[in-house]
Amino acid sequence: MSVLESGASGWFEELRNFGVELLWHPSVSEETGEEARTIMGRVERGELKLDALCIEGSVLHGPDGSGLFNRLSGTGRSMLEWVRALAPLADYCVAIGSCAAFGGVPAGAPNPTDASGVQFHASEPGGALGADYLSRAGLPVINVSGCAPHPGWIMETLLALSLGRFTQADLDRFGRPRLFADHLAHHGCSRNEFYEFKASAEHFSERGCLMEHLGCKATQAVGDCNQRPWNGGGSCTQVGSTCIACTSPGFENMRGYHQTPKVGGIPVGLPLDMPKAWFVALAALSKSATPKRVRKNSRSDRVEAPPTAEKQR
After folding, report:
1. Is 39 in contact with 24 (CB distance < 8 Å)?
2. Do 120 and 98 meet the contact criterion of CB atoms below 8 Å apart?
3. In Å, how far are 20, 298, 302 from 202, measured between CA atoms?
4. What architecture (CATH level 2) is domain 185-302?
5. Which of 252, 227, 211 is nearest to 102 (CA)?
6. Using one digit for the tens of pLDDT, what is the confidence trace for 234-268?
7. Which CATH code fits 3-181?
8. Residue 222 has pLDDT above 90, yes or no
9. pLDDT confidence band for 220 (50 / 70 / 90)
């Protein structure tokens, strides 16, 4: 659903422009029933080349390792079995979304279906294919994480693969493409002026920074969410919600999404790479230097005090 709007002419036209043939997808392909089973059977028998196997959703191992909680209709075989059968035949294996990458919401405690990602279970390597799996091209599973992932992350990954311009060096330690994982959701946030001065919102609908009180994890979560618009415009923080770090393994097990946990009044989740002592010192300095305009606007749902030009002498 996320990728359908990718490109000016839509996803299908964008695929065609780059010579990518979509063999089958359960939601958008015309083939159903026996036709779909025939395509998958031809791939499994080696009669049809599989350049990239893209998997959406968690892989269920239950009950008792059988995977039978989730069967592919009409085949009598579990999705776990199909993933293990097709992945070794693919030049590349791509997990689309945090459920396929790390297990996601279905794998949240207590995880009754024994769900996992394709090659990770939360932050631990393993998953459905095991930590040692490599595709025919010699790469581990490529985790285009996010709930949902940005359409650009999906399409740019597929295009890089189709052009043969994707290597191990293009992945971070969780198998996420660095094209988005080398950024933080914080970068480009429209609330950054409030963050710089630690002028924080205390209630939703206020324009201030959402990190100090309302649980925003944009300074800790990978993704260029605020540097490129989603389907024409907007992001989580742009529309007034907090970043819940949905590109990260284990985000589904967090508690109090909209409340910042603190110890001694200091947020537990500090910005990446920032020592606690530095944060405390900078926060105190920033708050003491906060312009009245910024402080006033941070606690309002609109611009109460616009920027004014310095008086000419």
Report:
1. yes
2. no
3. 48, 9, 15
4. Irregular (4.10)
5. 252
6. 899 998 999 999 999 999 988 778 888 888 777 88
7. 3.40.50.700
8. yes
9. very high
